[in-house]
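thread: overnight batch results

M.L. [08:02]
morning all. the overnight job finished for the chain we discussed friday. pasting input first so we're all looking at the same thing
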Amino acid sequence: MTLDGLTKYSNQYDIIFKTIVPSKVLTCEAKNPSTGETGSISKTLHVADGPYNASIQAPKWLVNGVKSTFVCSAVCYPSCEYTWYAGNPATSSPLSTSTSNELHYLTPQYQTGLLDVFCEVQNTLSQLFVETSVAVWVPQGPTDIYMSGPTSAMVGTKETYYCFAYCTPSCNYIWYYQNKTFTGDEANVPILNRNKPLFANILVIQVEQSHKKESLVCSAVNVLTGKTVNHTMIINVADPICVLPITATPPIADSSYSLKCVGAQQNAYIYWTKNGKTLSTSDTVHLADNNVILTFDPLRASDTGVYQCIANEQGNVIPGVPYELKVIYGPLNTEITVSGDKLVGQTTLLLPGTSATFYCSAKCYPACTYVWYNFNGDIIGKNASFSFTPASVADEGLITCVAFNPITQNYTTVNTNIELIGGPKNVTITGPNSVQVGVKATFECSAVCTPSCVYTWEVYGRTIHGSKVDLTISKYVATETLLCIAQNIITGKLAGANETLDVTDTNWCGC
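M.L. [08:03]
and the structure it wrote out:
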């Protein structure tokens, strides 16, 4: 057997290539020792190496809906083929198979968490293969960030606050309070977010200064992307003095209601303000118990406002935490308007076929609900506004709005009668069929008309206004004709009627 000019007289040739070499030709020659005849055959040997040292160059993270490039590297001769998988190859279908070592992966919108990407490298000659993988995060968030903790704090107390955010893989938290930066402590809380345990960051602050309001900011930072989301909580910080209602009974108008200045020293001088101005007492607003108790009897809607007690303790003026009193009242002054601001009366005139929008309003706290009814008692609307387009007299009738306070259960009603503008029609002249010369006769003109008509007469070539006319014929004629024209005061439409009268004269002989 001959290889590279070296001949070995054996039917077996053991070959070891220690380095990559080009393809070689191995020739085997067989010779019959008796006859001396020979025969030969050749085989081309291709040298393969690898694959080994396989690795994947991957992006730092993936983004949903965006293509990312992965590069698989390996020592391989003469060439290798690369098969990519998103997930375990045993349970996943290959994404691609080619001699290109790059994967351009489009991250699905639904993909979250940690994604394992596998690259299978196979020598195209030897069919030997190796497998390597890399885990890449599809980061999410921070989203759904919120804080938990008291929104009011007293000077000298310690308060605990929690900051939560949904983050993949995780978030770091930074707190900002009174121009200082804090890191807080991580804690596992018994809450699930998207079926995963939720971790919170805890901050305990010492309230040292008295301000009306302080901002506490929690900043969640994704450890991978650096994306940051802030959440701010406004903390009402005050001394221990505050205004509180004496009972849990809601402040309903026309009932008795009391506020108390809590926390002031027993010998302190206390005075009250309403909406920042000194409170004036009256027949219905009283102070008692060294001005500690403020009573409204009865409570009125006008008593709504922000109340604050201020204590003077040995010359130290301490404003208490204000209390906003929202008096529950109404409905009052319920009314219906049309076309936005036109107040309706007992009757509302509409043109057939035109759309009209009615608005019901009432003074009410909390906001009233509104229901509309037609003349049959059927509900025709459940909002403050109600629109409809009347077409015929069948749509005429009373519509009623009911304003309802959901807390007090009180209600009021207001209504208007819908009438369609129409006419004139059926114009009629009533009076005698004949007149006598020199004798006064009265005639009246009428018509079916909504809202009403004005009337004009044509008599003797003269125009007379009014629904009635007195007629006195001074000389004999055989007949006299009356013409009445009715005109609708809204639309201006006209309709008329005429009447021919016989004229008699007792002094006329007919000569």
